[in-house]
From TrEMBL:
Species of the source: Chaetoceros tenuissimus
Record carries keyword Ion transport: no
Top-level taxon of origin: Eukaryota
GO molecular function: pyruvate dehydrogenase (acetyl-transferring) activity
Entry cofactors: thiamine diphosphate
CDD domains in UniProt: TPP_E1_PDC_ADC_BCADC (cd02000)
UniProt KW keywords: Oxidoreductase, Pyruvate, Thiamine pyrophosphate
Name the record gives this protein: Pyruvate dehydrogenase E1 component subunit alpha
Enzyme class at the top of the EC tree: oxidoreductase
Any Gene Ontology biological process: pyruvate decarboxylation to acetyl-CoA
Signal peptide: none
A Pfam family per the record: E1_dh
Ranges where the Dehydrogenase E1 component domain occurs: 68-364
Amino acid sequence: MFSLARSSLNAAKRAASGNSLKLATRTMSSDSVTFDLTGSFQLHNLDTAPNNEITMTKEELLEHFRLMYTMRRMEITCDNEYKARSIRGFCHLYDGQEAVATGINAAFEPEDSWITSYRCHCISLARGGNVANILAELFGNAGGQTKGKGGSMHFYSKENNFFGGQGIVGAQVPVGTGLAFANKYNAKPGEKMNVAIACYGDGAANQGQIWESANMASLWKLPMIFCIENNHYGMGTSIERHSSHSDYYKMGNHIPGIRIDGMNVLAVKEGMRFVKDFCGSGNGPMYVEMMTYRYHGHSMSDPGTTYRNREEIAMTRSTRDPLEFVKKTLIDNGLVEAEEIKAIEKEIRKHVQSETKKAKEFPDVELSQLFDYVYAAEIDGYKQEVPDYIRMPDYAKSFWKS
Ligand SMILES: Cc1ncc(C[n+]2csc(CCOP(=O)(O)OP(=O)(O)O)c2C)c(N)n1
Ligand SMILES: [Mg+2]
């Protein structure tokens, strides 16, 4: 027990490493501020590096804050709705990790491809989803992003180049490598390629299929980003107990890597601008390690306090919270008054409330449409497949194809 608590505290120290909540300011003009990012990156096998500063306008910072606060409120709503049993099944929340999805999205173009694990609600939101459709998917009704048939782990939006939510740990990585292959294949000669990113966890990072994907991506110089969201725990196991080494950004061996302070949205944005530029220019893949933290347990069925202690969670919240960081950056640099932030928070809370109401008002999925969109509607003239047998929870209500 003692060693577990110790390793858990080590993890907390690492999560808390990097810049403190306060970001040093370099220069200021009337409508933008340049921030110092020194200490936010660690490099592996790279001759070039991201800039050690980033210039942001008030509007850009506010936009990031709005998205991150919407994510936070949406995940808190999921927690409440799950406890009220309006959401059933698996449900993995992203609060604590908001700066990662927000910063990547800020560096990406809509044409870049993105695929992730089951912890996918907020990435789907960043990628152009809306709160009502995301919650409707969790409620399992017809207004959901995948028509209420996927649930928490299976968001998907082809028009936003978001290739989902995967329930199988690591499965997104070979598929993401395939997306990178497609992006290279479809690129116009001489032009920058769109990149593909696969986000996965520290627990997934030692899987064989990831090494295999990395090998092909490197061999074929694919514009592929292997992005490890290191929240310091797998499904109840700290990195000290599940990985023989913890420098995840060096895991690609000869493949270049970068470790980024994943609690600082500006570091994520600037770091990912560099990574996208590197991979999209034909230099091959890169390993990216985002140092982050999850506040909730692994999923809603895990209280999240048996393998780490409450002090660790409280310490991260008070010293490294990604939202407090943006808020403080805005206020300390005189870009907004605290009152303005409070008003924005109030407006977003109301928005999430009304989206929740809207999400609940969509109708149930029609039984006759249960298999629409599950299999391809028509392939080479063949009509959509319906399985021969459907096992319902109540055996007597199961179906056989007549
Ligand atoms: C192949 C496979 N093995 C095991 C599981 C069960 N499982 C789900 S998540 C998880 C831990 C993954 O941890 P990590 O990769 O760190 O991601 P995080 O949940 O921290 O985001 C496990 C073991 C699974 N879904 N798929
Ligand atoms: Mg993890």
